[in-house]
Design the sequence.
């Protein structure tokens, strides 16, 4: 791929989604965009790039952005954050929100639904403690295509075997031909909405917990800061944030701080010592 | 090092499973059917059994039921690994005392993720 072509596409991705595509990831462009070229009756990736350069048709730009920002997702990915959510964050919220009986959770890169559905399953498993509560899970993603798949809740045999214990498959999925569909009572716990993290967050409402795992790694430093600081405005002082294991707030913002010993879990910088103590304790 | 008994009548599957599990630091024994597996278990109980369903002589489910009745046979973690991929087979296996269930085809990632779930890794 010619360097001016790479710059055209990577510039487009940065502008539309915040995604930073380093030059050593050119193979990713080739492997993900060549099928789009073929689908559109174009022979090569060069033809597709020309199409972008000459016509800048919105539907093509959307398709390219979606193809490049879609990442694989597993149920209960990395386990630990889900254990923390279940054993530490939820018990603390059940205590602190006892009057309102209302909790809102945001999955900021919901992808094909594995993360919000994993959270919904955890909540369903602890339903006895949540009688009379209203717990909302909002899943957003920049790609409508992945959200459509999430809403359908249909997963391949391969997808349901990565991270999902068999007991939960039996309990919460129905077999449909070769596929597995998540049951309606789990599906209805999650609301999906197309959303670009570069946009203003005001339309989303406030949240008690935000999952934003393995998203920031794709942004440049100023974008990371902006996204985290916008998130901070959506959560109260005792809210929590989950980032991916490889991510950090260090040098990016001082509005969140890592909860010691609880990898991936962050409190706001205004969290009380009492809250931090509870989040640390398992 | 934990021991794993790989039970499958297909030599190729045993070989693939052995390669993956050795990389995950398991000591591997092989058995070609349920009876062979049961004999193996009676002489030395493994920590884990990776178990096919359809095999001659004694199938995986019958082996599992017999194993759980054997002295010390409640101990091993049993993970089915089979082409039987419908809910009724899965439920039958879990009711008979299987700890996890892998639907073939499998790869390293699936085996690893299932073994993590049952606390072996």
Sequence:
């Amino acid at each position: 791929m010619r360097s001016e072509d790479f710059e055209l596409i990577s510039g487009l991705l940065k502008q539309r989604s915040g995604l930073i595509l380093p030059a050593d990831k050119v193979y990713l462009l080739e492997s993900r965009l060549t099928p789009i070229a073929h689908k559109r009756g174009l022979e090569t990736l060069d033809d597709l790039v020309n199409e972008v350069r000459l016509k800048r048709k919105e539907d093509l730009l959307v398709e390219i952005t979606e193809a490049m920002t879609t990442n694989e997702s597993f149920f209960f990915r990395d386990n630990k954050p889900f254990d923390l959510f279940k054993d530490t964050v939820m018990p603390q919220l059940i205590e602190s929100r006892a009057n309102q009986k209302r909790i809102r959770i945001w999955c900021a890169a919901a992808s094909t639904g594995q993360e919000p559905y994993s959270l919904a399953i955890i909540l369903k498993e602890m339903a006895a403690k949540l009688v009379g509560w209203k717990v909302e899970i909002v899943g957003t993603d920049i790609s409508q295509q992945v959200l459509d798949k999430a809403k359908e809740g249909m997963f391949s045999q391969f997808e349901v075997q990565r991270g999902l214990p068999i007991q939960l498959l039996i309990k919460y999925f129905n077999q449909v031909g070769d596929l597995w569909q998540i049951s309606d009572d789990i599906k209805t716990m999650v609301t999906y909405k197309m959303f670009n993290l570069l946009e203003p967050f005001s339309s989303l409402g406030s949240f008690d917990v935000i999952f934003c795992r393995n998203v920031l790694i794709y942004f440049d430093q100023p974008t990371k800061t902006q996204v985290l600081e916008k998130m901070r405005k959506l959560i109260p002082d005792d809210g929590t944030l989950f980032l991916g294991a490889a991510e950090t707030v260090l040098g990016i913002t001082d509005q969140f701080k890592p909860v010691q010993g609880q990898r991936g879990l962050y409190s706001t910088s205004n969290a009380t010592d009492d809250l931090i103590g509870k989040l640390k304790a398992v | 090092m934990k021991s794993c008994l790989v039970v499958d009548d297909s030599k190729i599957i045993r070989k693939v499973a052995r390669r993956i599990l050795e990389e995950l630091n398991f000591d591997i024994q092989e058995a070609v059917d349920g009876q062979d597996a049961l004999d193996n278990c009676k002489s030395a109980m493994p920590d884990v059994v990776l178990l096919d369903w359809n095999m001659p002589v004694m199938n995986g489910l019958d082996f599992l039921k017999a194993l759980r009745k054997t002295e010390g046979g409640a101990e091993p973690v049993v993970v089915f690994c089979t082409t039987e991929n419908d809910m009724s087979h899965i439920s039958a296996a879990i009711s008979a005392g299987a700890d996890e269930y892998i639907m073939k085809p499998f790869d390293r990632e699936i085996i690893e993720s299932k073994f993590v779930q049952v606390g072996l890794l």
Remarks:
- The CA atoms of residues 189 and 234 of chain A lie 21 Å apart.
- Chain A has a mean pLDDT of 95.
- The first strand of chain A starts at residue 102 and ends at 107.
- Chain A has two domains: 3-69, 80-280.
